[in-house]
Specification:
Belongs to the PPR family. P subfamily. The chain has 25 helices and no strands. It is mainly alpha-helical.
Amino acid sequence: MWRRHLLRRLLPSPATGAAAAATPPPPFPRHLSTATAPAPAPDNSLASSLAAALGALSTTPPPATTPDAYFSLHFSDVRPTNALLAEALALSPPATSRAAADLFRFLVRRRSLHPSDGALAPIVRHLARRRDFPAVRALIQEFPTALGPATLDAYLHQLARAGRPTDAVKVFDELPEQLRNREALTLLVSSLSAEGFPSHAERAAKKVANEIFPDDNICTLLVSGYANAGKLDHALRLIGETRRGGFQPGLDAYNAVLDCVCRLCRKKDPLRMAVEAEKFLVDMEANGIPRDAGTFRVLITNLCKIRKTEDAMNLFRRMGEWGCSPDADTYLVLIRSLYQAARISEGDEMMTWMRSAGFGDKLDRKAYYGFIKILCGIERVEHAVKVFRMMKGYGHAPGVKSYSLLIEKLTKHNLGDRANALFREAVARGVSVAPGEYKIDKRYVKAKKEKKEKKRLTLPEKMRLKSKRLYKLRMSFVKKPRPRMRA
């Protein structure tokens, strides 16, 4: 015990070591104080201290002590919670995967942290995001009782995201009997289908079909996965198999297939997109699948992609015939398309309709930057500045990209005074806009008219002009021949 106290005095804490070195020692007290002990540190400072410790253990070369001894020295009085652990991992530097695993082991063994699913999930997500899958496997084998749906979802999703579908299927196959249920199979199919591996997901579902028969949700995920991957034949085949099996894929699956049809037509023959989409919509209605807002969003988005803005607007006006109302994404797509087509007033009107429909919160800083970028791309800088002011008026603070883009465009349009005013505004707001040199476009530079100076003529030039004038005068008195009448 006395060695631990001695080491604690000699070695500073990782979060307060640098601050203590820079702070001068306090003056000697003149009298004894009867104040109580200081309150414990808040959770945010404790989380930052844990993150600093993880960074210190991940440095090169690492500290001489073992991770367990290091954590015991500095965090022997920590009361760990799942929220504190997740916050510390969010604040930690990127290369702290193994140190995070050591921190979890220390908190479980020394500080009585219960190894539950909620505690293990952020550690697994942190390790898997760094592609440290051996450390994840070691943790799961060390704490098998902590494995639950949240941990499994993080593990399978990161494996699929890393391009390891076979390893994800292997993890599902190696699950204990009580965890290999429909929920785990849904997580596997969802992860593989979302990352572009629907064939692996289908094989895994068919492999365990005798134990876990696929339901409507799994079939919908498989169809959507094939459609998002651009494999229309497999998606239609799976829809037919699902119908013959007595199931009906969800509306999300049909919308994904409709989007796949439109994307393939855009790639091969954009003029046939409307015809092929109408055929699929007729097939949907024949099977009793009604259209919803997602169906119209898919159609309107693909029409805007091929610059058929008027057709998209007509479809937008007809949505009420099917009892559907546009969602926020539909409004955003139409506003971008109208601005792209230089229909500025209609785009502003659509923005007003979007706020009236209750989607004003979706008009955030990112959406406004997209509008400003489109307007600057079609050289409508004045309206881009108007949208920029509108963004500030609705309480969205512009970022570096918005200021930089507008300053560059204003300078190219030979509006240097306004560009300088915008730069000063950015500096006053604390936005770090880097000053640069921009060239003025020649189209916006007024060419100066050169004044023609009267040139003094020489005597031969004067005589030549005089003879020309006299010749014209003589020819004006010559009688011109009349045109003869034709027989």
